[in-house]
Write a structure and sequence with these properties.
With 333 residues, the protein is an alpha/beta fold. It has a single domain, classed as Rossmann fold, CATH 3.40.50.150. Helices cover 34% and strands 16% of the residues. It contains 13 helices and nine strands. The chain has helices at 12-17, 33-37, 41-48, 73-81, 85-94, 99-109, 126-131, 145-154, 188-198, 221-233, 247-254, 266-273, 303-311; strands at 58-59, 65-66, 116-120, 137-142, 157-160, 173-179, 199-211, 279-285, 324-330. It has a seven-stranded mixed β-sheet, with helices on both faces. It has a two-stranded antiparallel sheet with strand order 1-2. Helix 4 packs across helix 11, helix 9 crosses helix 12 (266-273) and helix 10 packs antiparallel against helix 13 (303-311). The longest helix has 13 residues, at 221-233.
């Protein structure tokens, strides 16, 4: 794997696509998970078995792994970035770990005690680490082995799988979480459909921290500034990401739908979930907002975002300018 610091963001998809289809997208070997946290592959598989779909093809040595038909360039970028133990240690400590996040999630879903949680794109385990509690089972789905090792230490049953084809039965989860992960996936609609399928009647699908498309519709000078961020980010710390070892470049390569003209939208969420019978409540926000988000409080975006929005003729105080969408969707009984 080429991790040369001179590799630029736009070369990463081509570099990843050149890998053999069966090459494991792992940056470096990791110790066996069972040795780290005291659970064997068989123990994890036994806990997963009641939830696995009948046609699931599961293998692996350290933890259960589903067969992935092909790795797209975006999937490979995610597998490489989220496998790095140094970067994921920082991610687990700092990314989406602010108290207002915990407050709004707890206000939406209550306690995890006794519930089945499926966390799609779980990373190193931030959702469970932040919410705590004693779920009946917490299944962490991710494509990066290194992240799954850390998530297992937090308390997840790790499952390496493609978010577009999750090998779990329909209707098994009280809560399905997609926290800041939807925009990392190639096909957001397909991932939403998979997540919705897994929610039991009366259960909740909750998504958060995916960029709202209208907030990032930069143009003119603002769009030029956005494009210049790649070399600038090589030298500064950003949102928990450090400039060392070319982390910024790899992190940006995973953000498949976080760019001007792309992202999530209220229309996307409603068009996917409401026809399936879900009641969909969406709360745009600017991140550091707690349970007051349910009263329409959105908070204020950082100065650099407000400036870029004004230069793009976007009103920073508007609903459409909120950086992220917090969606709470309930499946009827």
């Amino acid at each position: 794997m080429n991790t040369d610091p001179s590799l630029n963001l736009f070369a990463i998809p081509d570099a990843l696509a050149s890998l053999d289809a069966d090459e494991r997208p792992v940056q470096s070997p990791a110790p066996a998970l069972g040795q780290q946290v005291g659970h064997s592959w068989a123990e994890y598989y036994e806990r997963l078995q009641p939830y696995l779909s009948a046609d699931a093809s599961i293998h692996g040595t350290a933890f259960p792994e589903a067969k992935i038909e092909r790795y797209s360039p975006g999937m490979r970028a995610n597998a490489v970035y989220f496998d790095n133990p140094q970067w994921m240690d920082i991610w687990l400590k700092y990314v989406h770990r602010y108290p207002q996040w915990r407050e709004r999630w707890q206000a939406a879903i209550g306690s995890l005690d006794g519930k089945v949680l499926v966390d799609i794109g779980c990373g190193p385990g931030n959702v469970l680490a932040s919410l705590g509690g004693n779920p009946r089972e917490a299944i962490g789905v991710d494509i990066a082995p290194g992240s799954l090792e850390m998530a297992a230490q937090v308390g997840y049953v790790p499952l390496l799988a493609d978010a577009h084809a999750v090998p779990l039965k329909s209707g098994i989860a009280d809560i399905v979480a997609i926290n800041g992960s939807l925009h990392h996936c190639d096909d957001m609609r397909r991932v939403l459909a998979e997540a919705a399928r897994i929610v039991r009647p009366g259960g909740i699908l909750i998504t958060d921290h995916d960029p709202q498309q209208t907030a990032w519709a930069f143009r003119g000078i603002a769009l030029m500034m956005w494009r210049l961020r790649v070399p600038i980010y090589r030298w500064i710390k950003r949102g928990g990401h450090s400039p060392q070892n070319d982390e910024q470049t790899w992190a940006l390569a995973t953000e498949l739908h976080h760019r001007p003209g792309d992202g999530t939208s209220e229309a996307l969420l409603r068009s996917m979930l409401e026809p399936l019978g879900f009641s969909v409540d969406i709360y745009p926000h600017n991140h550091f907002v707690g349970k007051e988000v349910f009263d329409g409080v959105r908070g204020r975006p950082p100065f650099k975002i407000r400036l870029a929005q004004r230069l793009s003729l976007i009103d920073p105080a508007s609903r459409a300018a909120a950086m992220s969408l917090f969606s709470v969707s309930r499946r009827p009984l």
